[in-house]
Amino acid sequence: MRAGAARRRVQTTVIVLAAMMAVTASVLGGGLLVVSSAPFDDAFAEQNGAHLTATVNAAPGAVAASANAAGVTATAGPFPLVTVVPEAGGERTMPFTFAGRDTPDAEVDAISVVDGEWADEPGEVTLAAGEGGTSVPPGATMSFPSLPGSPVLKVVGFARSVSLTADGWVTAAQAAALAPSGTPESHQMLYRFDSAGTAAAMETATAAVAASLPADSLAGSRSWLDVRNAAERATAVYVPFLMAFGVLGLVMSVLIVGNVVAGSVGSGTRRIGVLKAIGFTPGQVVRAYVGQALIPAVAGTVLGVIIGHVLAVPILAETSDAYGTGTLGIPPWIDIAVVGGILALVAVTALAAALRAGRLRTVDALAVGRTPPTGRGQAAARVTARLPLPRAVTLGLARPFARPVRTVAMLAAIVFGAIAVTFAVGLSTSLDAILTARDHDIADVLVRPAPPELGPNGMPDGPPPSLPDDTSAITAAIEAQPGAKAHYVVHNAPAAVAGTTGTTELVAFTGDASWGGYTLLNGDWIGGPGEAVVPTGFMKTTGTAIGDTVTLTVDGERISLRVVGEIFDLKNDGMKVYTDAAGLTAPMKNSLIAVDLEPGTDPAAYAEGLSRALEPLGANAEPFREGSSDMITVLNSLTAALTLLLVAVAGLGVLNGVLLDTRERVRDIGVQKALGMTPGQTIGGVLASVTLIGVIGGVLGVPAGMALHDAVVPAMGDSTGIRLPRVALEVFDTPTAFALGLGGLVIAVAGALLPGLWAARTRTAVALRTE
Amino acid sequence: MTSPVIELRDVGRAYDEGPPALSGASLTVRAGEAVAILGPSGSGKSTLLNLIAGLDRPDSGTVTVNGTRVDRLGEAGAARYRRASVGMVFQFFNLLEDLTVADNIVLPSQLAGMGRAAARRRTAELLETLGIDRHANAYPGRLSGGQRQRVAVARALMNRPPLLLADEPTGALDRASGEDVARLLRDLNADGQTVVVVTHDLELAKACTSRTVELVDGHIVTDTAVSR
Ligand SMILES: Nc1ncnc2c1ncn2[C@@H]1O[C@H](COP(=O)(O)OP(=O)(O)O)[C@@H](O)[C@H]1O
Ligand SMILES: [Mg+2]
Fold it and tell me: Cytoplasm among the record's keywords (chain B) (predicted)?
């Protein structure tokens, strides 16, 4: 009786754990899937984002009249709009577009102030926060000495407009005062439409607005669809990854929970016979057993929801930061769906198993506890007995054949566990490779311009710094410092490419840059003057193929280059052209010198020594530091958390199966111990009973995990419009695959260890009384 | 007189609930003896036998077998002790249903690491002595109760233990098979095997032993030599 209670306690614990892990994995996976697919939509809805942001060159009255255009449901504005260029150290810096709004609140585009306060006094400005924002520190001032009255604005806060309506906000009066005289009166008007879901709907609505405005006064407009596309490009990379993990987690949860519940009810079959023998109706039996499974499942589910939310906190915080949205949370419907789903699964499985047991004739049910031997089990025992291995081990090896259904369930758990581990290892290797390829600065030491001094107003004093036009003094210093092996100089210039808008960056190298970590996707590296390599983004945007010639205009000078290769580079949307500097006459800035060191040279010491030599030359050397990305941090921590969970769930599946097996054989184990089987031999036998499925699970799971990785990673790339380098795709070599294959065995042995210890510890005298 | 094989001194054993299953039990069994432990159901007979077999540990007192303090052995030590010194026969045979008769019999030697050839010879010998060689490759499920108990006895003797312990060996058998097993135990004892048989069947005790120890409520109440 006591043994029976202890056994039920273990079974209860297993159900609690299985339900808990299943819920944790599903809440985490499902929740993150939803959250990261819709951060923009949520924030946009919260702020009543502008479907259309229009710049109108007309008087306020005429602009306001457009609120009555067909399809318009709400408007904000007109707000005076002005584009100004602050000056620092006598040089003009980047242009800023300010909207004149006395308050952040509005029916459309209700802006959230994230830091400091709203600029509600003349002489104050609130800047846009986030990605597109600038590096202006709070409390700094922006001065416009060339505007009438030399106005100066004080930065009093930062605010976020999901619709990205302006770079900063000032009072309406201040905006009017900033407008250079003689420029046409310009206003911003924000609209929401009753139908804005598609590009076609937006076109219709925009046309209606344009028609309601004075002719030719609509100087510019931006659809919220474009803003959303840009925002979601970043989140899109998560989706295939989370889907893969989510599906894995769900399949495993269903498998393990169903298995555990069916097993626990099934192992109670003999008891069910007893209950019926003493007068329980089948209905009462079923109710009792469903209750026995559901109560621990509810407990596990509650724990799982809590753990899922706790684990999600740091990951969601990273996600919020990365996408500049407000604090994200797992939506309640995910909890409800997961909890409901898992509990329904438990109830249905328990019901099915209990009904089956309840339907058994009482006599048969009473006989079940004696576990009649199976022909398969006997044959397997005969075969394994011949193996030249210790008998305790060969007895264990025969076990999987005795209960094939249970064996398949355990095998499935291990296969999924192996898939999860393989996928996770592959993914983090890929992400690492992408990170390395993206930063492509794998030089040992980088020489950059010395950082600019900050002026009295907190703004950098002077134009963005660059290395001197003549770098020969610097390169001489590099060569003079012992340990340098090779170096190249990077020159940059903004270029225009016919047929494209925006700026393409021309990057030219003096010296051999082929060791610089640029990842070649197709074709060849630059072989000499006149040849160029370009990122995938450039090829897609301009329709260029390898072998084509591209023509760039730099400072009015035309440069023709033949594209010889495609490289991996995400910066500037891939709008870059890399070439050899030799023969280029256009003016370019020298931005960087990359230094490769002789093996054994300490980069930090080299950089320190070089920096001292470079100080009078206005340059600074630093050892290369691995970059890290928030997104990759998020993905890596997610991967780790989900993998651990799935491996634990797989181990639990094995534990459950072995537990049921050792429990059924408690008498046989007792007999073997009475015949002189030591605790060590008992554990050895139990572990041996799972080695075969561990090995097969690894052999099946690892290739499946590799295939999953090879399908998901390119999909992640595609969803962001990126072609990934081979190093990021082909991450599995034979030793890695072999090591991962052993993972199946590790899961199996880990899962079997506890039941093995229990079997070894069971008092023999007690076991033999089980009759 | 030969030296004692089993020596119990003042042995007590109580389970969590209820009165002690055994208390103040002292017993000496010498080599070559055949002892019957008699008593009603629940009187502590199996408890006593399990303590001798090292399957259980006493709460008080000492259990010494062939000079080994069995009550002090750890789990692994007890297993090795059983392998070498004890053969056990149970009421419900406790054969492993997945293994053939021959594989059941050879198991103790395999756990003890006996060489294959020696084990094969010993198995053949036992199959023959016990008259079950016809069934060597059968599974226990196919055999009658009496045949099964013969297999169990053969398995118990596999490692030539100095001590054969039997707990109600005829309890699950019909009369004829029971007598057959009793005869077998007597013959073994006649060949020098020390035997301890637990039973509540006086007839069996008389048929195969020379001494009866009677237990009532965990106390040894009589210890008499019987001539046969
Ligand atoms: N493992 C156990 N747990 C609790 N009580 C036990 C256990 N084994 C035996 N007992 C009790 O100890 C007493 C003696 O049992 P046992 O030695 O099996 O008697 P016998 O073999 O003479 O029938 C009985 O009351 C029995 O219920
Ligand atoms: Mg008994």
Answer: no
